[in-house]
Every structure is written in C-alpha cells, then in structure tokens.
Amino acid sequence: MIFALLCRVIKEEKYAARRAILPMLQAEEDERFVKEWKKYLEEEARIMKDVPGWKVGESVYNSGKWMPPATGELRPDVW
Questions:
Q1: Contact 36, 73 (CB under 8 A)
Q2: What superkingdom does the record give (predicted)?
Q3: Of 46, 67, 68, 74, which is the most buried if we count CB atoms within 10 A?
Q4: Which letter does DSSP use for residue 63 in this model?
Q5: In angstroms, rounded to a whole number, what is the distance separating the alpha carbons of residues 42 and 44?
Q6: For residue 56, how many other CB atoms are within 10 A of its CB?
Q7: Which residues contact 48 (CB under 8 A, 6 or more apart)?
Q8: Rounded Cα gap, residues 65 and 69, in angstroms
C-alpha cells in the first residue's frame, strides 16, 4: 500500500516537472524554427532570383488552407 502511494507521488511529481518545463522547450523549438525558416527563405530567394513573378515564401499550392509547418529539419538537402 505504501509502495503504491509512493509510486503515485513520484509519478505526479514527474508529470508536474514535465508540465513546468514544457513552455521553455516549446519556446526553444519556436526559436530554432524561425532561424531555420529565415535560412530557407534566403536560399529560396537566391535560387529563384531570376524567375519572373516569383514571390519568396509564398505557397506554390493554391488550396487556400493554412497548413502548419512540419517539425524537424525544414530542408536537410539544402543545409
């Protein structure tokens, strides 16, 4: 009985610690994403500079729906 209670207390403490650190981890990921996105846009501008009418960062798909960007490496083949 005491062992089960102790396990539950430890588990709750672990989850509380995770909840406390989550906003910081999300902020770090957001910062990393913005840096990578800027690199991606600079590379796109460099590659497409001679294409008339090309707008850097504009979607090539015309669905009208916003899709969240994928996490992780944006363009590993470029970097």
A1: yes
A2: Eukaryota
A3: 74
A4: -
A5: 5
A6: 14
A7: 54, 56
A8: 12
> What CA–CA distance (Å, rounded) separates 11 from 4?
10
Cα(16)–Cα(21) distance, integer angstroms: 9
Amino acid of residue 1: M
For 1-57, the pLDDT digits (tens) are 788 888 999 999 999 999 999 999 999 988 988 898 899 899 999 999 999 989 998
What single-letter amino acid sits at 20?
Answer: A
DSSP 57: T
- The CA-atom distances, in angstroms, between 36 and each of 5, 52, 54, 58, 70 are 46, 25, 21, 16, 12
Q: Which two tokens stand for residue 30?
A: 């957001």
